[in-house]
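> example.struct
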């Protein structure tokens, strides 16, 4: 299968490029290198040193071609779609704190995410509507409602009438709001132009290794640990290495879905093998398991102690506007129906992360000031 990966230089994108190549696919990867610039802007870097984007393509022995381009600024995608079977769209600004830093950051996030997705959809309409679009969404579009969260649509009874509608959106940042827009854009285009789309609403991704990155340090993916781009468990592990307490926002009772990087690749691979029929917008909630923030902090603390690292926990005022005690029960049935079976355990993954980060302690200490959560919602 010929697969186009957009956002191929990212935390998920680069391991996915290698993973798909190893599965026998011919992969074209595209990225504008913005993630590297964003992280530099906030005064941080990857804890794990990474190669340049184009050098990665030379170092990896697989059927991979990498290109630098910005999909939010041009329509060149049409030139690449003639022989493409599937597009995996990871090319969006992924950070809620970054989008909440200022008006300029919120505007940039909206423009980058919304325009980029619109370019993709229009290119599919014009050049090859048979391509299977697989887009990365976020569980954050749902918020934390006091009811079970379905996958995409639910049955609504109101004033003796019944319909099947998209579940109400309740985004928690301008980043999440941009993802609501791109979700609805994709659903509308799929219905109107007879496309076929798989939308996977992601939980929080964590981890440092996949089967492919373990082979050679030069194939490593990035590991962000700062308070803007570092995801929660990754940031907790970096705080241990920097000798800082784990910073738990508020009560620590907030619940979210979490997924390892490796299980995320498994989920995408299954969606690639199971395209929806023409005209269908298929939604998958993608995560391994739901945890509270305090449960994760305690798991990181226990794993740190098991490898002789000191670790304490400290609650700090929550910089975000979010419910801190709430019901949270999303379905993941659609992924399980196509064979998703999460591998590994939380503890195993955290210990694997510590083993990778211990040799990188000085890189973390050199940027440890960036770990703090400095962006406030109000």
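> example.seq
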């Amino acid at each position: 299968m010929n697969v186009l990966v957009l956002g191929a230089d990212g935390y998920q994108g680069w391991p996915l490029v290698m993973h798909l190549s190893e599965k026998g696919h011919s992969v074209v990867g595209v990225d504008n290198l913005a993630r590297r610039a964003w992280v530099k802007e906030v005064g941080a870097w990857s804890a794990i040193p990474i190669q340049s984007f184009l050098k990665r393509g030379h170092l990896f022995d697989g059927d991979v071609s990498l290109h630098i381009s910005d999909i939010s600024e041009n329509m060149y995608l049409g030139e690449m779609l003639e022989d493409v079977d599937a597009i995996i769209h990871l090319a969006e600004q992924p950070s809620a704190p970054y989008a909440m830093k200022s008006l300029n950051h919120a505007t940039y996030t909206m423009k980058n995410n919304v325009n980029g997705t619109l370019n993709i959809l229009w290119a599919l309409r014009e050049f090859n509507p048979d391509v299977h679009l697989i887009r990365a969404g976020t569980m954050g579009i749902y918020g934390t409602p006091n009811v079970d969260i379905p996958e995409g649509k639910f049955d609504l009874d109101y004033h003796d009438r019944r319909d099947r509608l998209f579940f109400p959106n309740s985004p928690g940042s301008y980043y999440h709001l941009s993802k609501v827009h791109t979700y609805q854009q994709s659903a509308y285009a799929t219905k109107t132009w007879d496309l076929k789309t798989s939308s996977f609403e992601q939980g929080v991704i964590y981890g440092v290794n996949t089967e492919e990155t373990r082979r050679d340090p030069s194939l490593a993916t990035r590991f962000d640990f700062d308070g803007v781009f570092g995801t929660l468990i990754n940031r907790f592990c970096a705080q241990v290495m920097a000798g800082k307490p784990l910073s738990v926002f508020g009560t620590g009772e907030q619940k979210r879905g979490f997924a390892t990087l490796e299980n995320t690749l498994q989920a995408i691979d299954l969606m690639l093998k199971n395209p929806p029929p023409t005209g269908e917008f298929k939604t998958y909630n993608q995560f391994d398991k739901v945890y509270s923030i305090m449960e994760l902090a305690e798991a990181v603390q226990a794993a740190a102690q098991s490898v002789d690292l000191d670790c304490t926990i400290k609650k700090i005022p929550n910089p975000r506007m979010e419910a801190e005690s709430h019901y949270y029960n999303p379905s993941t049935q659609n992924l399980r129906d196509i064979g998703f079976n999460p591998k590994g355990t939380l503890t195993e993954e955290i210990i694997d992360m510590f083993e990778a980060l211990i040799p990188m302690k000085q890189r973390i200490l050199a940027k440890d000031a960036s770990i703090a959560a400095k962006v406030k919602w109000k």
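> remarks
Residues 219 and 226 are 22 Å apart (CA to CA).
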